[in-house]
Design goal:
Chain lengths: ~325, ~425, ~280
């Protein structure tokens, strides 16, 4: 099926013309954002097996800096994106170095605690809007403010970023660095005994992941035009990244994409069906899905398909 | 690569199925899209407001001659639009501003609503109103405190409710009246929960106090989900302010009252900035220890037989509880929208917008205690105002301004003492 | 004088932290497993207390036992149906399992009980004691004392009874315990039951004094993590001291720095601990 990848690319490229209108475009944008964040997380959480549940710290940094640049200096928000990436990088190093000494669950907890710490702190810091948050330009002064009336430009900008993230992941997968990551995931002690520079590798993975997550955050705040501690640093932001990647298959190239493809429409659908009724079934559904996933198919849809596909193929060939 | 693409194809199919929910369309109606938090932390407020909106829709859509004061109550539907009925489309943004943005877009483009109402949390109002502005659809903010929701130069956003600075001004006027009567207001304390609501109002109060030469002895921002507030109460006990203004949600309001009793601390007066103090569970929980606590409300149930009393009965029949101030303000926002829709005589956005801008409702035509409804150039209702009420026995009674007061103000508050 | 008041208040709350954290540390010590849904167990305990009071009209002892029992059962069920299977799986699955469980429990509670904050109708415990100028509300006092007693009780259960030594044996060396004829599976189920049960009764004790809604589980969960890290994983006495210390630090920070900073101080302490002394006060490294 050599045509599958170009077909996928074509589908993504032409989606806005297949399903037209602001509503479907907005879903497309939400899908791309989820795919970008989850793919970014995937580098350190999926490939290296370091399950961070505090990635919102990088997302939030990336989300705040553009609006901060606008709020403080009147600059177009996009000017703040590199700053966000830099701060995230520094944060990754500061967090990574001490935290990677911890094992498994400990590490996850540490990431949650640090993310919460940052969220509460930002909520008290007047310079960055404290609890009220920051707003972007309501009506753009020029094209570089990126306040488009239509979702279409956002869609293609996000698509371009997703392509970059996926391509980087692809290169990582094939490289020695990727080999180190997989070795670490399989067993740190064994990896170390094989000569894998464990500390340095983990740190590099976190740094790369942090930078991409930061970009995802920037895209979010530029598009939404608003950020506050909860939407930037909240725990649901971190959890969503993990769920999306895990649902599709953490540690695989297209896992996050698949997860986003399933989860984003599901979110929209449950909001439509149940939202007005106000019963909060959406999150009950999430919880249920995650538990079932953990219990029966931790490898996500990717692994499920790996198991099921050969049987389907065999049947079709036999017939 | 193969299996990944195949999985993607399968996922796409699933996604397509999930997304193909056709919207329901009833002809000959005027559609109002309503964005509220129906699940999540603010769900209680969202649900209460939803019930209130449904009561309001009933009032407009059906004949209610007993509520003749209210515009559109006596008739069925919108007379200037051939009796067209109002159709409500509720969406749940769950308190998430990005969700609010997406839902506002959906309401406008998919459900083709003619106007929008919402959105409770200021963060959600920011994003949802921006969508409305971009698409040129009128948006009525019935209740969201942050100042610059109407300060961004938007044409399509209107707000019927008072804002943080209005509340601060009300409190200052109240203090002035008290001082004229010889009561001591040497200093006040402000205790606020630290999200956008509490912070905006507290900021406004501090600024107004400064302008009025009333020192703020201490300002205590705290997290609404605190389990224990003893330390804060002790800080207050130390500072001995004459009035404490609480800008709190429900559980923290109750917690503060109980903790103050436990630590034997009662200031001369406590004023709650609505929200927590107005929640239906507040009075049952603390009535016996917080007698005389004050609250602000633009809603007063009034005497039996009055329009407001009848509205409350309708709401009570539906939900089993009395109408609260927040839901009342949202309901008023809804009615203002309906009135404008009627005067517009058409569903064209520009005509509706113009009708809204020309709104001029007199106090007698309102259910809330505003001085009227008239929007300035930014879309803010300049005649929005609020009463101050006081807890006596198991009910709040109107005590200020004096000309509207049902009973005299008890000063200092009794608390748990007899 | 006011300072003494702050200290007493902090310790009383800290005692309850100690109780619900002791369960978490037990599981952690035994299975190297963190239960991200632990806070939700506390929250459910509070609701059980509410239901008992509303339906059966019981007093504190009744709803305390009810909460403990109901949550004990839930803990065992969770272990048997979920935890047992993911324990042998990848790290991601382990973390996701209790995370998903937390979401499931929290939002099911939202669905059933709504987001309204609730509190127990006035129960038999009320009033305030005045001891040398320090005011101690009776409900908090009783809750605090009960919490310490129960934590000590758990510790004694672990160290002085046969069942307890079996639990500790599995914690120390699973295989050796199996060789001795102990069924690790059963012991682990028991541990989960005890952990959930102690969380439940802690919730019931808190319900006496504080209002709550389904959202409080998140905060309690994080608090429990901090306490367990400070106390050292696996150590119930450690959890007891740590709970008291955290309660104290919280109260003092709130008083001196302001309530917002109390959470920051606690999490900063947590982060510092994870980096500098992960084994806490009394845990094994």
């Amino acid at each position: 099926m050599k045509w599958s990848l170009p077909a996928l690319a074509a589908l993504l490229l032409f989606y806005p013309f297949i399903l037209t209108g602001p509503f479907y475009w907005d879903i497309g944008v939400a899908f791309l954002l989820a795919a970008i964040s989850a793919s970014a997380w995937n580098i350190v959480g999926g490939y290296a097996g370091q399950v961070s549940v505090g990635h919102s710290m990088f997302f939030g940094v990336g989300a705040y800096t553009p609006l901060l640049f606008y709020h403080l200096w009147g600059l177009p928000p996009v000017a703040g994106v590199p700053a966000g990436m830099l701060v995230s990088l520094v944060l990754a190093v500061a967090i990574g170095m001490p935290t990677f000494r911890l094992q498994g669950h400990y590490f996850s907890m540490a990431t949650i605690a640090v993310a919460e710490l940052i969220r509460i702190f930002v909520g008290t810091w007047d310079l960055v809007g404290a609890a009220i948050g920051l707003q972007g330009p309501a009506v753009g002064r020029a094209w570089w403010d990126l306040t488009f009336r239509s979702e279409l430009p956002y869609y293609y900008i996000f698509l371009a970023v997703l392509a970059v993230v996926l391509y980087t992941t692809f290169e990582v997968e094939r490289s020695r660095f990727g080999y180190y990551l997989r070795a670490i995931k399989a067993g740190e002690r064994a990896a170390r005994s094989l000569g894998v520079p464990v500390r340095a590798t983990k740190l590099k993975a976190l740094m790369l992941s942090a930078v991409f997550t930061s970009v995802a955050g920037s895209l979010y705040s530029i598009k939404t035009g608003f950020i506050d501690p909860e939407s930037g640093f909240g725990i649901l932001v971190s959890v969503q990244m993990v769920i999306v990647a895990a649902l599709g298959g953490a540690g695989t190239l297209f896992g996050p994409l698949i997860g986003a493809l399933l989860l984003v429409p599901l979110q929209t659908a449950t909001n439509t069906w149940f939202g007005g009724g106000g019963s909060g079934l959406t999150y009950i559904l999430y919880g249920g899905i995650i538990v079932l996933l953990a219990r029966y198919e931790p490898g996500g849809m990717h692994e499920w398909w790996q198991r099921v596909a050969p049987r389907l193929m065999r049947r079709s060939h036999a017939a | 690569m193969r299996t990944a693409s195949a999985t993607i194809a399968a996922a796409l199919a699933a996604a397509a199925i999930l997304m193909s929910c056709p919207p329901v369309d009833a002809a000959g109606t005027v559609k109002i899209g309503i964005l509220w938090p129906l699940t999540g932390n603010a769900a209680a407020a969202g649900q209460a407001s939803k019930a209130a909106a449904e009561v309001a829709a009933d009032i407009v859509n059906n004949k209610h001659p007993e509520l003749a004061d209210l515009p559109l109550a006596a008739t069925e539907g919108l007379p200037n639009q051939g009796g067209a009925k109002l159709e409500l489309i509720f969406v749940d943004h769950q308190g998430n501003p990005s969700q609010a943005q997406q839902l506002a877009t959906r309401l406008i483009t998919q459900d083709a609503v003619h106007v929008l109402l919402g959105a409770y949390q200021s963060s959600c109002s920011f994003t949802a109103t921006a969508v409305a502005e971009r698409h040129g659809i009128p948006f009525m903010v019935g209740e969201s405190a942050a100042l610059n929701i109407t300060g961004r130069g938007f044409k399509w956003v209107f707000r019927s409710t008072p804002i943080a600075s209005d509340y601060a001004a009300t409190y200052m006027r109240f203090f002035d009246d008290l001082k004229k009567e010889g009561k001591k207001i040497a200093s006040i304390a402000v205790v606020n929960e630290n999200t956008d609501y509490g912070t905006s109002v507290a900021d406004s109060i501090e600024a107004a106090a400064k302008n009025n030469n009333i020192p703020v002895a201490i300002r205590i921002p705290y997290s609404a989900s605190s389990t224990d507030v003893s330390a804060q109460v002790l800080q207050l006990k130390e500072k001995q302010p004459d009035v404490i203004i609480f800008i709190s949600y429900t559980s923290d309001s109750i917690l503060y009252m109980k903790t103050m009793k436990n630590l034997d601390y009662m200031p001369p007066m406590v004023i709650g900035d609505d929200t927590g103090f107005s929640d239906p569970s507040f009075i049952p929980a603390v009535a016996d220890i917080a007698q005389g606590a004050m609250n602000r409300s633009a809603w007063d149930i009034g005497k039996p037989g009055s329009t407001t009393y009848k509205i409350n009965e309708m709401y009570k029949a539906k939900t089993g509880r009395d109408l609260d101030d927040t839901s009342g303000r949202n309901m008023q926002g809804f009615l203002v929208l309906a009135d404008a829709l009627n005067r517009a005589g058409s569903t064209e956005p520009e005509k509706i917008r113009d009708a809204l801008a020309k709104t001029d409702l007199k106090p007698e035509q309102l259910m809330m205690g505003y001085n009227g409804v008239k929007f300035d150039a930014t879309g803010q209702n300049t005649l929005a105002s609020t009463y101050l009420i006081q807890l006596k026995d198991k009910q709040y009674q109107l005590v200020w301004p004096e000309k509207a007061a049902a009973t005299k103000l008890d000063w200092p508050m009794k608390g748990w003492k007899q | 004088m006011l300072l003494a008041q702050v200290i007493v208040g902090g310790l009383l709350l800290g005692a309850i932290y100690a109780l619900f954290s002791s369960g978490l540390t037990l599981i952690w010590g035994m299975m190297n497993f963190i239960n991200f849904a632990h806070g939700e167990f506390v929250m459910l305990g509070m609701y059980v207390a509410l239901l008992v009071v509303v339906w059966l009209g019981g007093g504190p002892a009744t709803f305390g036992f009810a909460a403990a029992f109901a949550l004990f059962v839930l803990g065992v069920i969770v272990y048997a149906s979920l935890i047992r299977h993911v324990m042998r799986g990848p790290m991601l699955a382990q973390i996701l399992s209790t995370f998903g469980l937390a979401l499931l429990l929290r939002y099911t509670a939202f669905w059933i009980f709504s987001a309204n904050f609730v509190s127990l109708p006035q129960v038999s415990l009320s009033g305030t004691l005045n001891v040398g100028g320090i005011l101690m509300p009776v409900p908090q006092l009783v809750a605090g004392v009960a919490a310490i007693a129960l934590t000590l009780g758990l510790h004694l259960l672990l160290t002085r009874t046969t069942v307890g030594s079996q639990l500790l044996a599995v914690a120390e060396d699973r295989n050796a315990a199996m060789l001795m004829g102990i069924r690790p599976d059963r012991m682990q189920a028991l541990a989960w039951g005890l952990a959930a049960g102690s969380a439940g009764i802690a919730g019931a004790l808190m319900a006496v004094s504080y209002p709550w809604s389904p959202s409080v589980g998140e905060t309690f969960g994080l608090t429990a993590f901090v306490v367990v890290t400070l106390g050292g994983f696996g150590s119930v006495p450690g959890a007891m001291y740590a709970g008291l210390i955290i309660g104290l630090i919280q109260a003092l920070s709130a008083y001196w720095l302001g309530p917002i900073y109390k959470d920051i101080v606690v999490y900063a302490l947590f982060a510092a601990l994870l980096w500098l002394r992960p084994q806490g006060l009394m845990g094994k490294a």
